[in-house]
């Protein structure tokens, strides 16, 4: 009997998810429905759904770094806010080119990410969490420290009109909504590609057991820095889209509340997935909007809903799909005849093969 190879051990340690045909069809149908149905309905729903999807990028960023990398970063919201502020600040100097503005948003977000990347190199666990927490609190007072540039507690408006958003009007028509949907779908597909790649599998192995991964020869610090930069890229795009839609930024975008919201969205939808954070952001923000219309105690009702979801569905809304889907798959596997012999290497490969048939998203 041959011993399992290094690659087989890694594949068995990390449950790689590959999209099934049913999953592909489901995703295509969801995207098609989002592209067709809201514009047909029209009205406020188009602008509201665009806003939900934008905050879905914030949740996706949290899901990538916390769900897969197990780095509980409470500063993702600060990256989102800094990117939005950078667009508004640059526009004050007459810079209205949309390509330049998106590059400014990404550049500002990556600068913030470098700080969080340093934390990922020098701290883990609670220490890392507290460092990101304190840094987020510091970012929240940056507009007060630079009132002439960032508007202080009055916020800052974006100048340049529709030129800054490629001529798309967030308030009229469907062009801006389709633009937001395209960016979100692109980020989701790119994230799936990254997570299912060999580097993504290494990131997941490091997240689960960094000591073992380091002993196997992986550069733990390097992968964590790369993951931090990538998640910040997604958050930066979210901040850029936010300021294009609202043409105004305020201090709350940099506060702890925005980062916490992103974490809650990801947890409710399913932090260990790509679609889960997006689903959580859409569902929770829609629920908050509906509760706000009928009561002034919407935060109380929303808190009760969150506690119920966390208690009864700890894996998030998408966890229900996986749970019942896995049960059906195990039922089919039980009907197959068992093999007579096996080897350690074959066992490791079998674990990987069974994991690859799981629902990916």
Number of helices: 17
Radius of gyration from the alpha-carbon trace, in angstroms:
22 Å
Shape category: globular
Distance between the termini: 36 Å
For the biggest β-sheet, the strand order reads 1-2
Averaging pLDDT over every residue, what do you get?
Answer: 82
**Structural class from helices and strands?**
mainly alpha
> Any idea of the CATH topology?
ABC transporter involved in vitamin B12 uptake, BtuC
Can you count the beta strands? Answer: 2
Would you kindly provide a written description of the structure presented here, covering whatever features stand out?
- The protein is mostly helical.
- It has one domain: ABC transporter involved in vitamin B12 uptake, BtuC, CATH 1.10.3470.
- 73% of the residues lie in helices and 1% in strands.
- The chain is built from 17 helices and 2 strands.
- Strands 1-2 form a two-stranded antiparallel ribbon.
- α4 runs antiparallel to α5.
- The longest helix is centred in the middle third of the chain and has 27 residues.
- It is globular and about 55 Å long.
- The two termini are 36 Å apart.
- The C terminus is likely disordered.
